[in-house]
Amino acid sequence: MAYKFPLKPNHECNRCARLRSLILQNRLKEPNWHNGPVNSSGNINARLLIVGLAPGLRGANRTGKVFKGDHSGDLLFSTLIKFGLIKDKYEKRMNNNLSFDNCRITNAVRCLPPQNKPNGSEIKNCVKFLISELETMKNLKVVLALGGIAHGAILKAIEKPKSAYKFGHNRFHKVDKFILANSYHCSRYNMNTRRLTEDMFHDVFKNILSYL
Fold this sequence. Notes:
alpha/beta
């Protein structure tokens, strides 16, 4: 199916019973939070699409904007600004609006999963939204997968086997009409354990710019 515009789950999406149950619980606890599917942000005409895992509880699930308020967003947005992909000043933890120049950001799973771990059926249920992003971004050159789950979701969306495209930090794969780039997710856990450092993350974007 060819998509003419990116599909968006509605706020009351109930495709995944486990995720829906968690959202309803959080609405009772925090009625002023977004507590629903979080849609993409950025320029549909961009050459770079960044795919994360899923909304964080007190981040995008709270703000309703992808990566906004998440610890991981602090590194991601500061890096996008450093490399000229966002032309604004990023204020940590603030729900400020950013002007995306040549990038778009989404998640493999649009709703908050328990313990930040979506299961296979939840990834499958959300893949049509990722397919529509890929098909409507006509200028797309690079898709950056933040973590192995995002990497797998992208390959599922384009119907490619994971065995042929192994995930690895700062690894780049030629698939179809774009380059699939890999990075460890810029999560608090990865940063605290030093699995990912700021320099390692910046190195990925240095290589991405060479393809853009």
